[in-house]
Structures are given as C-alpha cells and as structure tokens.
Amino acid sequence: MKRSFFSLSFLLFFLVFCSGVEAVTWDTGQFLFDYRSDVYYQDIFGNEERSFLKEGTHYLQELTGDLTQEIVSGKVNFNAYFNLRSSDDPQHQIDERDVMFVQGYVRLYDDAYELQGGDYAEDYTSYTLGASLLGVRAHLKPVDGVKVYALWGRNRDEELDRYVRNTFGGRVELSYRGLSLGATFVHNDVVRSSLKDDSPVGDEFNQVFGGDLRLSLFEDRFELQAEYARSIYNEDERDETIEDEYDDAYFVKVQMRPFKGLALGAEFERVEPLFNTVMGSASPDMQRVKGEVELTPWDFLNVTLLHEYSFDKLTDDSVADYRTHTHMTSAGLTLTPCYRREDYWNSLTLNLQGNFSDYYSSGNVDQEDLSISGTISQSFTHWNYSIGYAFSRNWNHLDRSSEYESHSPSVSLGINYQWLSLQWNWSFNFGYEHRKALLYDYTDRIYRADGALTLDYSETQSTLALSVGVEHCDNSPYLGTADNTRWSFALNFDQVIKRSDKFTATVTLS
After folding, report:
1. What's the whole-number average pLDDT of the chain?
2. What's the mean pLDDT in 495-508?
3. C-alpha 153 chain-centroid distance
4. Which residues partner with 189 through β-bridges?
5. Which end of the chain has fewer CB atoms surrounding its CB within 10 Å, N or C?
6. How many domains does the chain have?
7. Domain-located, residue 353
C-alpha cells in the first residue's frame, strides 16, 4: 500500500530594522560610518527539532567604518577599515560567538605600492597561493614592467581551527609588451606548540616554488599561459618515519582567434601524485587534456564544442588501485533568429545543451552519462515565458540495476504590471520528472509547482511578497520509498518608517 506523508514547517518572523550611514568629509579624506541594528522574533512550528533556527527574540548589530586620508599629496594615502558584528542568533554567529570582529585592516598605498596589515586575501597563482590570511603584505612597482609581492600571515582563528599555520612568501613579475614572466615562492608550516589533541592536522610543512609565463600576440589573437610548480611536503614532522615528498605540476593553455567569429582553445595539465599545495589549488594524481571551439558565424547563432580527457594513477606513488579514464564531451547552441527586429520578437531565444561523460577503469568502473536539454524563452512588455525539456540517460555496464532514463519538461511564466503607484509582479513555475529504472521497469514521478506575487506600493514605501510551492513524489512501490508531498509557504511584508541619506528605519513581518 502506498503511503503519503505531509510535512509543514512554519516560521513567524518579526523584524525591526534600523540603519544609519554617516559620512564625514574634509579636503584630504573622509570617514564612512555604517551602523545596522535588527531586532526580531522567530516562532517555529512543525519540524522544530530539524530546524537550524533558534526560536525567540533575537538581535543583529553590525558596525563598519572606512577611513581614507591623503598624507602626502600624490605619494602617500592611508586607509583603515573594520567590520564588527554582534548577534545572539546562531545563523549570524561565527562558532557561537555573540561578538565578532569580522574583518579589519590598515594600509598605505599609491600607484607604485601598497602596504597592508590585518585581514587580506591574496592570489598569486593556482599552484602556489590563493588564500585569506591575517598578517602583512606588500605590493611594489619600482619601475615600469616590474612588480614585487611579499607577504607574511597566519590562519585567522586559532580557536576555531585548533592550530596555527604560518605562511610567508613572495612573487616577482617582469613584463614587456605582450610577455609576462613570474616567479613565486610560498612557505607554510604548522606551529607544533599550537596543536591540540583534536587538531585536524599534524605538524605540517609545505613549500612550493613556481614559475609562470603569459604571452599575447597579434592584438590578443594568440594567447599562451604556462605554469610549472614543484612542492615539498611533510604531513607530520613529529613522526621521524615520514619523509619529505617532492613532486611537480604543469599547466599549459593556448587560445587563438584566427578570425572574427571563431575562437579555439586547448589546455594540458599534469599534477603528479605527491604534489601538494596547502595554500594553492590542485588535484594531485591527475592528467587532463581539453580542447574547445566557439563559433559565431552570424550574430544570431553561437555554437560551443568541448572535449576533455583525464586519467589518474599517473605513477606507482598513486594511492589509487586502478587507473580511471574519463571522457567529457559538451556541445551548446544559442539561437536568436529575430535579433534584428525592433519589437518583442527580438528576444526570442533557443538554447540547446548536450553533455556526454564516459568513465571506465580496469577495476570496477564502466559507465556513461548522457544529458540533453533545451529551452525556448521570450520577453514581452509585461510578461515573459520559458519552456524547457531535459533528457538524461545512464549506462552502467557492470551493474545494470542502477541504469536509468529520465524526462523532465518545465514551464515558467512571469508577469509584471504597473497600476498607478502599485507595481505587481507574478511568477509561476511548473515541472515534471519521469525517472525510470530500466532493468526492473520501475518508475518514479516528481511533480513540482510554485508561484509568487510581489506588490510594491511606492506611495507608502510598502512591499508585500507571497509565495507557495508544492512538490509531490510518486515513487515506485517496488523501491520501498513511500510517496510524499511537501508544501512551502512564505509571506513577507516590509514597511519603511523613515528613510534619508543618513538613516533608515524599516519594519518587517515574515
């Protein structure tokens, strides 16, 4: 017997919102002061134990300040920024803290240099460094064509991370016309004395040396990017049986635009199994080759083609037992047949997308995935629509019980209308998915629908938003999963009590 379950979660949310923006300006600088205060009540009904929200009255306060001062005209500028937050609501807290220093820094800068202390995000190259740190950094441009970077920093929150990691490094860039050469060094290690019993890392040590090249010729019709990096890594220096690991990573990318309407691209990447970059980003034990073509023969037609082949287990150092080969092919088409017209027909757009993936290994993987989707969309003066269809198919040559086929049509409609000072906006979405297990001829069906209405009355600065959604899953009785229906409702009302350049007060009921 089929069973049907109905679940409803309701949240009553009342908010008093006040914010103020104060700007103090003088001849050589300014100070921007922004304060926000929210007081609200949350009442949760239904599956209260599953909600991450906390019932009751809560507050949220945020304070930001941004000071800019010219110290020496044309040579030295000063900037200081801070962001403070206070809240008793877990959804706005960091590690359940009521008061949080979210971000802060000071810096001296000009066109030729930048010196910064505090919180910062730095990005050298993909293999060497791309991270947010707490510390100091410097960007220098001593002469045209030369850039020098240096930094020292650590992870910001020792209490949350359960360890301290120090990072320092630098980078030099030399550029001349369309050629740019770069060299990077990054060192980081965990402070042994900071480790706790529950620390997620050991006494980790990592160094990465990298070199990169960028070349642009023929007015950017030919572009070449290349990067090489070598890493030294030790998982835990407390263990004398663990030796340092050395390995390499390579990346080459070429883009060509031989003539208008045609773009060609190719990539090669190889990351050896023992290459490790703690502060960068890389997928070790992987080699891939990618080629792509973008063709725009006419203004109303765009075609993209892409194929990528990759595999792992490059050497005996790999932790994988078997080598897995992956082929991914993608094709896309965008057609705007009436783009020259000056009426609503010029927005008529057809999008087609197809993707095929093939995974196989000498171990236990041999499957393919195919997906094809298409949409037709058009916008009019007061309404718009979109009609879509998606098909997907899976083949598993080692376990046919997981093979499936699915069909998913969808329709969307949007309506907007201005009547006097009242703006009306409706949106409706309908979808259906038919998923069939091919071996056993089992079928699951999912029906989805949602609608929303937003009313904005400019005379009183009031906004009312309503939405409702439903999803019904009609599952096959042979799979042991019961049918279920899920409803969702939302209501939100905003009323601006006072608004000016320096102060805003709003009442929200949701």
Report:
1. 89
2. 72
3. 24
4. 166, 205
5. N
6. 4
7. yes
